[in-house]
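The records we work with from here on pair a chain with its fold. These numbers are not coordinates but entries in a learned vocabulary of local backbone shapes. To see the layout at work, look at the sequence and tokens printed below:
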Amino acid sequence: MTAPVLATGHIGLNVTDLDRSVAFYRRALGFEQLGAGGDGAQRFAFLGRDGKLQVTLWQQSDGEFSAKTPGLHHLSFQVDGIDQVREVESVLKELEVAFAHDGVVAHGEGAASGGIFFIDPDGIRLEVYAPRGAEDAPAPSGSAPTCGFF
């Protein structure tokens, strides 16, 4: 039997404050709210673009994201070009978001791909990158993947 070809569907993230997270993902990354539900302390929102679900947010957590526990390392979003990465970076700077590296960085020494690495309001590590255009950007981790240990 041949295994089916799988494609990543939506990504579900636990958050502490649904309203704050919805506002962040809409403003910072341009998502539309496709739906929402729940009540009290357990609410959720569906985010995406053009009717396609991409991220679900689940208000059911307290504390902050931890790189010390198994699970999500980081969530990455691809755009077509490095100029789009810089557009997102500009919005994130207006929102005073914390970045892992200063500006656009290459994924590794000599890599054409690269992007920005930052955290959401719950400390979840995020990336916006382009497959080309970062050839002249620094690679702060040398030959190690920039999206690795941050």
Summary: The chain has a mean pLDDT of 94.
